[in-house]
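Fill in residues.
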Protein backbone atom coordinates (compact mmCIF):
# COMPACT_ATOMS: atom_id res chain seq x y z
CA UNK A 1 0.00 0.00 0.00
CA UNK A 2 2.56 2.58 1.06
CA UNK A 3 5.44 1.62 -1.23
CA UNK A 4 7.63 4.63 -1.90
CA UNK A 5 5.77 6.75 0.63
CA UNK A 6 6.90 8.18 3.92
CA UNK A 7 4.49 6.74 6.50
CA UNK A 8 4.83 9.88 8.59
CA UNK A 9 3.49 11.95 5.72
CA UNK A 10 0.55 9.58 5.23
CA UNK A 11 -0.25 9.88 8.94
CA UNK A 12 -0.06 13.69 8.76
CA UNK A 13 -2.40 13.81 5.78
CA UNK A 14 -4.94 11.57 7.54
CA UNK A 15 -4.72 13.86 10.57
CA UNK A 16 -5.39 16.92 8.39
CA UNK A 17 -8.40 15.28 6.74
CA UNK A 18 -9.85 14.29 10.13
CA UNK A 19 -9.23 17.75 11.55
CA UNK A 20 -11.18 19.35 8.70
CA UNK A 21 -14.12 17.09 9.57
CA UNK A 22 -13.99 17.88 13.31
CA UNK A 23 -12.92 14.29 13.96
CA UNK A 24 -10.48 13.59 16.79
CA UNK A 25 -8.01 10.74 16.45
CA UNK A 26 -7.73 9.27 19.92
CA UNK A 27 -5.37 6.45 18.98
CA UNK A 28 -4.08 5.15 15.68
CA UNK A 29 -1.57 2.80 14.14
CA UNK A 30 -0.53 2.93 10.50
CA UNK A 31 0.93 -0.34 9.17
CA UNK A 32 2.15 -1.42 5.73
CA UNK A 33 -1.14 -3.04 4.82
CA UNK A 34 -3.76 -1.55 7.15
CA UNK A 35 -4.61 1.25 9.55
CA UNK A 36 -6.28 1.17 12.96
CA UNK A 37 -8.03 4.34 14.09
CA UNK A 38 -9.94 5.03 17.27
CA UNK A 39 -11.77 8.25 16.55
CA UNK A 40 -14.34 10.50 18.08
CA UNK A 41 -16.64 12.20 15.61
CA UNK A 42 -19.76 14.34 15.77
CA UNK A 43 -23.01 12.34 15.66
CA UNK A 44 -24.16 14.05 12.46
CA UNK A 45 -21.30 12.50 10.48
CA UNK A 46 -22.07 9.24 8.70
CA UNK A 47 -19.23 6.76 9.25
CA UNK A 48 -19.39 5.57 5.64
CA UNK A 49 -19.14 9.17 4.37
CA UNK A 50 -16.29 9.88 6.80
CA UNK A 51 -14.30 6.86 5.61
CA UNK A 52 -14.99 7.83 2.00
CA UNK A 53 -13.79 11.37 2.75
CA UNK A 54 -10.63 10.21 4.56
CA UNK A 55 -9.71 7.72 1.85
CA UNK A 56 -10.55 9.98 -1.08
CA UNK A 57 -8.88 13.13 0.17
CA UNK A 58 -5.78 11.42 1.55
CA UNK A 59 -5.35 9.44 -1.68
CA UNK A 60 -5.67 12.56 -3.81
CA UNK A 61 -3.20 14.53 -1.68
CA UNK A 62 -0.63 11.73 -1.39
CA UNK A 63 -0.75 10.95 -5.10
CA UNK A 64 -0.21 14.61 -5.94
CA UNK A 65 2.80 14.79 -3.61
CA UNK A 66 4.34 11.45 -4.62
CA UNK A 67 4.29 11.02 -8.42
CA UNK A 68 5.52 7.43 -8.17
CA UNK A 69 2.39 6.48 -6.25
CA UNK A 70 0.19 8.03 -8.94
CA UNK A 71 2.09 5.97 -11.52
CA UNK A 72 1.96 2.73 -9.50
CA UNK A 73 -1.76 3.05 -8.72
CA UNK A 74 -2.99 4.36 -12.07
CA UNK A 75 -6.39 2.73 -12.66
CA UNK A 76 -6.30 1.02 -9.25
CA UNK A 77 -7.51 1.82 -5.76
CA UNK A 78 -4.91 3.39 -3.47
CA UNK A 79 -6.84 2.34 -0.35
CA UNK A 80 -8.77 -0.90 -0.09
CA UNK A 81 -12.43 -0.54 -1.03
CA UNK A 82 -13.57 -1.99 2.30
CA UNK A 83 -13.30 -1.04 5.94
CA UNK A 84 -14.33 -2.32 9.34
CA UNK A 85 -16.06 -0.11 11.87
CA UNK A 86 -17.31 -0.78 15.37
CA UNK A 87 -18.64 1.58 17.97
CA UNK A 88 -17.48 1.63 21.56
CA UNK A 89 -20.24 -0.02 23.52
CA UNK A 90 -19.77 -3.59 24.69
CA UNK A 91 -16.04 -2.95 24.87
CA UNK A 92 -14.88 0.20 26.55
CA UNK A 93 -12.69 2.84 24.96
CA UNK A 94 -9.68 1.94 27.14
CA UNK A 95 -9.69 -1.65 25.82
CA UNK A 96 -9.66 -0.45 22.21
CA UNK A 97 -6.89 2.09 22.93
CA UNK A 98 -4.77 -0.65 24.54
CA UNK A 99 -5.32 -2.95 21.58
CA UNK A 100 -4.14 -0.31 19.10
CA UNK A 101 -1.26 0.88 21.28
CA UNK A 102 0.07 -2.62 21.93
CA UNK A 103 0.27 -3.52 18.23
CA UNK A 104 3.90 -2.34 18.50
CA UNK A 105 6.37 -3.39 21.16
CA UNK A 106 7.55 0.12 21.92
CA UNK A 107 5.31 2.78 23.39
CA UNK A 108 5.51 6.22 21.80
CA UNK A 109 4.28 9.59 22.96
CA UNK A 110 2.37 10.10 19.72
CA UNK A 111 -1.10 8.53 19.86
CA UNK A 112 -1.07 7.90 16.08
CA UNK A 113 1.98 5.75 15.35
CA UNK A 114 3.56 4.34 12.23
CA UNK A 115 4.55 0.71 12.65
CA UNK A 116 7.21 0.52 9.96
Amino acid sequence: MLKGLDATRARDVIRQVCEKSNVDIIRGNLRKDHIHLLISCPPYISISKLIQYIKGNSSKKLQSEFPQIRKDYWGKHFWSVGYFCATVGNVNEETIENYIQNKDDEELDDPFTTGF
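Helices lie at 7-20, 47-65, 67-72, 93-101.
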